[in-house]
Amino acid sequence: MSAATLLAVGNWKMNTTVQEAMALASDVRRRLEDDPPGGVQTVLCPPFISLAPLHDLLKDSNIALGAQNLHPQTSGAFTGEISPTMLQGLCRYVIVGHSERRHIMREGYHVVGQKVKAAVDAGLTPIICVGETLSQRRQGAAEAVVRRQLETGLSGIADPRHVVIAYEPVWAIGAGVPATPVVVADITGGAIRTELANLYDDATAQKIAVLYGGSVNPENVTAFLEQPSIQGALVGGASLDAAQFAQIVRLTAEAKGTD
After folding, report:
1. At residue 91, what are phi and psi to the nearest 5 degrees?
2. Which of 8, 103, 217, 251 is buried most, with the most CB atoms less than 10 Å from its CB?
């Protein structure tokens, strides 16, 4: 396969107070330092209000921080928004185009593309989420939807080396019943890699980390990571449990032979 970076990303969504976030991050750090897994970049994505305190808490650790969203403009009259320049120095990663942003907040293809470019221009690494709904899958449009999301999301990116792709089938998120490894591999190893190769070239496509997200937990993550086209996981609910998330990080290293 490729030399793509292995990642275990915890998306805390709209959970944890600042105090709870600090306790959770401290617990994750302790567990990973007690038994450090090799070769995997661990990323925590807390709510915006906790980025600054967690930056200070984790500054001398191997755990990186990510934001859950950003506005494409660097400043302006956008009440309640966070610009890419505000994130500089606080985090390395930022989730862009999560299905909850696309479907609940109605963020369209063009907006997601603007956010991806804004993140890259600010020196941040966007984790670009792509994935189809259940109705789109039933209509046989899963591959077309994912390929369009990639095409528009990466439209302003000439060099994608510092971009991460996360495949999260909308119908599997929070469902407690994830997609099967075969279904996931069909998209990650098929539509995603093919579209990346079309947009850039095959060598570049193989170097871009592709994650799986959708009801990931310690019981099922290994089956997904055994697929050659997957280089890690975007974890939701299980990342709010320090023991479960630390185990997922270790299992990522074991599945990919880096530990």
Report:
1. -150, 165
2. 8
